[in-house]
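Exam revision sheet. Question 4 asks you to relate a sequence to its structure. Input first:
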Amino acid sequence: MADGMALAEEAVAVGTGGAGPGLAALRETLSTLARVRRDLAARRAEARMLQGRVDSLPEAQALQEAHRALRDAEAAEGALLRAARDCAMAAFQATGDKQPVPGVQIKVFKKTTYPDMGRLLDWCLMNAPTYVGVDTQGFGKVAEEMRERGAPVEIGLEPRATVATNLEHYLEGAHGQA
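Answer key, structure tokens:
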């Protein structure tokens, strides 16, 4: 099995120099990528095999059981903490006492709510336009329709290269191509 770092260094050298832009450089880069992927698949298989061996060890099984017990204890702690907070809030609402028992404190924070977003948006557009934003990801889904309705939107095409997962035909000796 080839050394992974050597293949990675070769891939970077091929992808960034050598024949320059063009089909020859692309073919060489894909050939190197195919070798790296083959090496990666072999390393993944070896790691899965070794993990299976480790998982069958008594110590690994004890560790898994310890992790299960830890998750159960963390879940119990979370449920009890939520219950304690609920009880503390009930006591605070009934008595107004911000420290109902030692170790528990009620803290009061300022919370802003916006009951009428339409009125708030109108007000901001007139008085504070810098605080009005556009959800570009959501708007992008309806951009063509909005452009037809007069929105100042440009829709263009952006080319992006994709590489197939299976590059076996770039490996030496595969169907006479390399």
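Marking note for examiners. Residues 58-95 form the longest helix (38 residues).
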